[in-house]
UniProtKB/TrEMBL annotation:
TM helices/strands, residue ranges: none
GO biological process, one term: molybdopterin cofactor biosynthetic process
Cofactors: [4Fe-4S] cluster
Keyword set, alphabetical order: 4Fe-4S, Iron, Iron-sulfur, Metal-binding, S-adenosyl-L-methionine
The protein, known as: Radical SAM core domain-containing protein
Record-linked InterPro entries: BchE-like, Elp3/MiaA/NifB-like_rSAM, MoaA_NifB_PqqE_Fe-S-bd_CS, rSAM, rSAM_horseshoe, rSAM_sf
Species for this entry: Candidatus Lambdaproteobacteria bacterium RIFOXYD2_FULL_56_26
PANTHER family tied to this protein: ANAEROBIC MAGNESIUM-PROTOPORPHYRIN IX MONOMETHYL ESTER CYCLASE-RELATED (PTHR43409), BLL1977 PROTEIN (PTHR43409:SF7)
Length: 459
């Protein structure tokens, strides 16, 4: 079987990241590997031919993209689209569909969390990939009745592919075809080496924060054995740097500890991951450090942690402070995400959040404008109130293509607050000294400098 995986070029060569659950423009000079396509590549059989074209990573023009596609026949193709670049992405999809009119076409993207976009795309595509680990590529490529049920794929508008939230489901997913995704256009902002690979132990999220699209996707967990086999393959490819793309690494802990213990004994990878403060356990963090973890990305979101319960987010301040202090002691870098413009927060609340960020021993801070992302309660309320209408897309947490005013702060002020927060956090002499003291190599320095330039350019 011949499988074609596609990411279109982005408008003005923006670094747009496209995932099933979320998409956005990078806040600095980085670009993540397309994790969902990587998982789909893991489903291919050894004898299958898989080709991957990324017009964003390779900074292609329209002509270069379609010249690269050529006119070769394929058994199916999977195309990534984004709410942050919907008009452009949909145009590229339509042209690709016209180029391969007889090839079964499937799409993925955060925008398909909304029914109007499901209606648009299912007139032209065979289905929307919702749960990549469940896909049956042979069934997807087989001729058959349109709208027929397919595992992990939405083939009818409003179809419930996810099912009810459950305890973690275990999957024996194999290794992605990493050799396809080791493009120089992919850069991870916290990596210590340019060449890196994305690995997933858990897909989906066990939490239910309503301002986040991830809350829609129940967790699917791989066994430690399958991940260790993947790490062996990456070691042979000469990869030293990893990004664990789990929405929160270490869940469930009983599944993660055997992997970490084996990694500490068998490998010398350096790696980063997302980590939920509520999962903090000193034993778990020590095991992560022993296995090579050097950076944690955590959600703090607001100085007023208790107020976040209105969005079904629950974080203990003791857990958060314990995690940050423990990481600092172990010289593990921490990037904390903060949200500017939540509906219940005033200008004074935002200032308190910035002060909180400055008070913590952090290595990076990502200041995100509260955005009406597909599937989020922010978007739902904006649509219900008339602040947005269906067809209003392009919003993301960077705010370059649109900012929705909050109930208490206008859009122009939100942009100014974000810029002020970035400058105030990163231009402190004490912060600059901290970063210099934590550099591990000349390569690490060049990555950090590149991200700094990108960050200030976009702020």
């Amino acid at each position: 079987m011949k499988i074609l995986l596609l990411v279109p070029p982005s408008p003005d060569h923006k670094r747009i990241i496209r995932n099933i659950d979320c998409s956005h423009e990078a806040k600095a000079d980085y670009l993540w590997q397309p994790n969902d396509l990587m998982l789909i590549s893991a489903l291919a059989k050894a004898e299958d031919e898989v080709r991957f074209v990324d017009g964003t990573a390779d900074r292609m023009s329209r002509e270069e993209f379609f010249t690269t596609l050529g006119h070769e026949s394929w058994d199916l193709f999977v195309f990534c689209l984004s709410s942050a670049a919907w008009a452009s992405d949909f145009g590229y999809f339509q042209e690709t569909r016209a180029l391969f009119p007889m090839t079964p076409a499937y799409v993925l993207g955060d925008i398909f969390l909304e029914k109007p976009y499901q209606e648009i795309i299912l007139k032209e595509a065979e289905g929307i990939v919702i749960l990549p680990h469940q896909c049956d590529l042979t069934a997807m490529a087989a001729p058959g009745e349109k709208n027929r049920p397919l595992p992990g794929v939405m083939t009818q508008v409003g179809q419930n592919v996810l099912g009810p939230p459950t305890k973690p489901v275990y999957s024996e997913l194999g290794s992605p075809r990493h050799e396809l995704f080791l493009k120089p256009g992919y850069i991870f902002p916290f990596a210590r080496h340019y060449k890196y690979a994305t690995v997933t132990l858990m897909w989906g999220c066990p939490f239910s924060c309503s301002y986040c699209s991830d809350a829609h996707f129940p967790p699917v967990v791989r066994t430690p054995e399958s991940v260790l086999s993947e790490l062996e393959s990456l070691e042979k490819l000469g990869v030293k740097e990893l990004f664990f793309a789990d929405k929160t690494f270490g869940f469930p802990q009983k599944n993660s500890m055997p992997l970490l213990e084996a990694m500490a004994k068998r490998f010398k990878f350096s790696w980063s991951c997302y980590f939920h403060p509520q999962h903090y356990d000193p034993v778990l963090l020590d095991a992560m450090v022993a296995a090579g973890c050097h950076t944690l990305i955590i959600g703090v979101d607001s100085a007023n942690l208790d107020s976040l319960s209105v969005y079904k987010r629950h974080v203990s301040e003791n857990k958060l402070l314990g995690l940050v202090r423990h990481a600092d002691k172990k010289k593990v870098d921490v990037c904390a995400d903060f949200i500017i413009g939540l509906a219940h927060e005033t200008l004074e609340d935002v200032k308190l959040t910035l002060d909180f960020a400055l008070s913590l021993p952090l290595d990076y801070a990502s200041f995100n404008i509260a955005a009406p992302l597909p599937g989020s309660v922010i978007r739902q309320e904006a649509l219900e109130s008339g602040l947005l209408t269906i067809g209003s897309e392009g919003f993301d947490t960077l705010g370059h293509s649109g900012v929705l005013a909050s109930a208490k702060i206008d859009s122009a002020a939100l942009l100014k607050l974000r810029r002020k927060a970035v400058l105030k956090f990163y231009l402190r002499p004490s912060y600059l000294w901290r970063r210099l003291s934590r550099l591990s190599s000349l390569e690490h320095l060049t990555i950090q400098m590149r991200q700094a330039v990108g960050l200030f350019t976009k702020s």
